[in-house]
């Protein structure tokens, strides 16, 4: 949900994945893109990694673990540990058909590819498989019903535009909150729930007036697991609250755990730009682009564009940054 991504990221995706991926000069280019980027990053963040021999991967809990399929787990490990979207696609092509996480990640990748039909199809599959999961695992079932509804709202805004699509998307959000509340009643301190809800609240706070980013940061800091994804979310929150010193602290904590993820290098570059450290940021733009083969084309192009704009701010030499973009 980086840079969620979205960027994921931030993803986003990202997020990043969750790191507000569709940005220009570190700012989202439109309300519609901000909303869709938030959704993609949020859904992606919900899906994670790290295995357990007794279960097919539960990175959130040390007790009362929940199982997911091994191919779904491998796909998320590829993205969130290594930022390798191409490897994730291969695993997702063989992912377990009853696991809503796999469809949520497919929807996130479709968003990054601007494949709106695939976004719609996989968002709906996320919701439908989660509705079935509620029968055996009501906590995660309700949680991913919310994710599916959230991404269906993103599809509506992406296709209808902000003016026409927002009323329908807001209706979806009402159902999102109903499902999240149902999950929260079952286990209010559940780390997976708090990770997903923290990212949702964080991204919505950037785009809508009724969410508080400070509350989302607190939720991520207190309850969310795994920690490096929580750190990443907190960094995004402080970036968007215009507190880059704190943002940098949490990016660095995330990098200590997952030091080879290009989404995190990109996020660190953005934070340094916010601090006015343009020259220093170029190292981290470069590190992110060194892993171009792993990245979706749209994400790679956004990183390259922002690096080009940063170089312009440093040397004030006219340049055509559109030449950095690849088809």
UniProtKB/TrEMBL annotation:
By its UniProt entry, which InterPro entries does this protein fall under?
A: Sll0314-like (IPR048173), TPR-like_helical_dom_sf (IPR011990), TPR_rpt (IPR019734), Ycf3/AcsC/BcsC/TPR_MFPF (IPR051685)
Spans of the TPR repeats are: 228-261
Q: Which UniProt keywords apply?
A: Repeat, TPR repeat
- Which stretches does the entry tag as region Disordered? 1-29
Highest taxon of the lineage: Bacteria
- Renumbered to this chain, the Polar residues biased-composition regions fall at 10-29
What this protein is called in its record is Tetratricopeptide repeat protein
Organism encoding this protein = Trichocoleus desertorum GB2-A4
């Amino acid at each position: 949900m980086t840079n969620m991504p979205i960027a994921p990221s931030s993803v986003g995706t990202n997020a990043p994945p969750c790191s507000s991926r569709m940005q220009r000069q570190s700012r989202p280019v439109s309300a519609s893109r901000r909303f869709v980027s938030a959704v993609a990053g949020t859904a992606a963040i919900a899906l994670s990694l790290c295995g357990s021999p007794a279960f097919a991967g539960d990175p959130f809990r040390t007790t009362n673990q929940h199982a997911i399929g091994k191919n779904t787990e491998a796909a998320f490990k590829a993205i969130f540990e290594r930022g390798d979207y191409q490897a994730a696609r291969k695993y997702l092509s063989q992912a377990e058909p009853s696991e809503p996480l796999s469809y949520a990640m497919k929807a996130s990748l479709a968003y990054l590819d601007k494949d709106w039909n695939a976004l719609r199809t996989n968002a709906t599959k996320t919701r439908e498989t989660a509705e079935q999961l509620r029968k055996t695992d009501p906590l995660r079932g309700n949680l991913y019903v919310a994710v599916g509804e959230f991404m269906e709202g993103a599809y509506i805004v992406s296709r209808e535009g902000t003016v026409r699509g927002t009323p329908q998307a807001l209706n979806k959000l009402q159902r999102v909150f109903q499902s999240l509340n149902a999950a929260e009643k079952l286990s209010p301190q559940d780390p997976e729930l708090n990770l997903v809800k923290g990212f949702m609240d964080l991204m919505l706070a950037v785009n809508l007036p009724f969410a508080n980013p400070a509350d989302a940061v607190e939720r991520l800091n207190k309850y969310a697991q795994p920690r490096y994804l929580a750190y990443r979310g907190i960094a995004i929150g402080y970036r968007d609250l215009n507190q880059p010193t704190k943002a940098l602290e949490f990016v660095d904590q995330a990098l200590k755990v997952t030091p080879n993820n290009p989404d995190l290098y990109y996020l660190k570059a953005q934070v340094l730009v916010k601090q006015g450290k343009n020259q220093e940021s170029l190292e981290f733009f470069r590190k992110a682009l060194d892993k171009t083969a792993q990245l979706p084309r749209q994400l790679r192009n956004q990183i390259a564009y922002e690096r080009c704009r940063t170089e312009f701010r440093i040397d004030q030499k006219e340049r055509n940054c559109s030449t950095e973009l690849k088809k």
